[in-house]
């Protein structure tokens, strides 16, 4: 009986883990915690609960979109693709629920803050416009007769665009929404730009690691990512590791110049050190769950370290 119970718990846990990570719900959580980290590091109030729910729902819906169409597992087999095939009807329903939630929440947000939104400065609208255009082009959603661009086919540029969109949402969009919800706040623009660049670099490195995972798939599709163009070894040695080292040194230099203190600096270096170690592990093949749990988990850890580190700032 005990053995049966253990096996049942393991079976249930396996299903829950797949639901969270294969279903992109962890990605939705990442979008929220990165936004929280940005506000905490800028010493600003948090955004409203409804905004965080909207951000989470929109992120899950967006990342799941790629798996809502026909899935051809014969050309590219992995457990996540199979999971989506096995739960195709369920995913279609959850996508409808997520879309409805996004429509209702965004409508409520627009109704509640319409006057403030209508008076947003041009630079805020520019940021929102850039995020939306990048998101649309990433999946090639515009009609082919209108504009034949799909950012998924830009090869090496794809990773930088993914990192850019994540940084825009985490740092810039959350700040814009805060101005809408709670009025104008003065912010250290140099710190805001620094946090934006740091997130951009960190998420770009994360995307490049996923490109290494997708090497065979991208090569078959003639998608010239870094891994396809230069091979795994050169991508790790000449792209991943230099980016991580530059990011780490820049972090130390910036926190030292801003007198953030040794404790805050050390806490914020933890994700970069682990990122360096995981980059070296990319010489070995890993299962898809390794990327979804460990590599994406580093983004979650980075946000936690950023939030915790602020509690030790020299005031």
What this model shows, in words?
The chain is an all-alpha fold and 315 residues long. The protein has one domain (2-312). Helix content is 76%, strand content 0%. The protein contains 14 helices and no strands. It has helices at residues 2-22, 25-41, 49-64, 79-86, 88-112, 114-118, 122-138, 156-182, 189-213, 215-220, 226-230, 232-257, 262-281, 288-309. α3 runs antiparallel to α5 (88-112), α8 (156-182) packs antiparallel against α9 and α12 (232-257) packs antiparallel against α13 (262-281). The longest helix is centred in the middle third of the chain and has 27 residues, at 156-182. It is globular.
Secondary-structure map:
Layout: H1 2-22, H2 25-41, H3 49-64, H4 79-86, H5 88-112, H6 114-118, H7 122-138, H8 156-182, H9 189-213, H10 215-220, H11 226-230, H12 232-257, H13 262-281, H14 288-309
Question: Would you kindly provide a brief summary of this structure?
Answer:
The protein has helices at residues 2-22, 25-41, 49-64, 79-86, 88-112, 114-118, 122-138, 156-182, 189-213, 215-220, 226-230, 232-257, 262-281, 288-309. The chain is built from 14 helices and no strands.
What pattern of helices and strands is seen along the backbone? HHHHHHHHHHHHHH
**Strand-residue proportion:** under 5%
Structural class category: mainly alpha
Number of strands: 0
Number of domains: 1
Distance between the termini: 58 Å
Key terms:
76% helix; 315 residues; mainly alpha; 14 helices
């Amino acid at each position: 009986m005990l053995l049966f119970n253990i096996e049942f718990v393991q079976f249930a846990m396996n299903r829950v883990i797949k639901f969270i990570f294969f279903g992109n719900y962890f990605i939705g959580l990442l979008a929220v915690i990165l936004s929280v980290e940005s506000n905490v590091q800028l010493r600003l109030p948090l955004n409203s609960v409804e905004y965080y729910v909207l951000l989470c729902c929109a992120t899950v819906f967006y990342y799941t979109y790629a798996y809502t169409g026909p899935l051809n597992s014969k050309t590219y087999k992995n457990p996540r693709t199979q999971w989506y095939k096995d739960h195709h009807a369920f995913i279609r329903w959850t996508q409808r629920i997520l879309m409805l939630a996004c429509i209702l929440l965004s409508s409520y947000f627009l109704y509640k803050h319409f006057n403030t939104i209508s008076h947003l400065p041009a630079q805020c609208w520019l940021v929102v416009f850039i995020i939306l255009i990048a998101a649309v082009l990433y999946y090639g959603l515009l009609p082919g007769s209108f504009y034949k661009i799909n950012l998924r086919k830009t090869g090496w540029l794809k990773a930088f665009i993914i990192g850019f969109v994540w940084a825009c949402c985490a740092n810039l969009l959350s700040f814009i929404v805060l101005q809408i919800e709670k009025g104008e706040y003065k912010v250290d623009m140099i710190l805001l730009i620094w946090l934006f660049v740091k997130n951009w670099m960190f998420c770009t490195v994360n995307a490049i690691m996923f490109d290494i995972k997708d090497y065979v798939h991208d090569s078959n599709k003639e998608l010239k990512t870094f891994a396809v163009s230069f091979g795994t070894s050169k991508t790790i040695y000449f792209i991943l590791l230099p980016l991580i080292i530059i990011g780490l040194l820049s972090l130390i230099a910036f926190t030292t110049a801003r007198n953030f203190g040794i404790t805050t600096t050390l806490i914020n270096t933890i994700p970069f050190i682990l990122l360096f170690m995981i980059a070296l592990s990319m010489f070995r093949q890993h299962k898809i769950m390794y990327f979804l749990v460990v590599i994406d988990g580093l983004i979650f850890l980075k946000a936690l370290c950023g939030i915790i580190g602020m509690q030790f700032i020299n005031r």
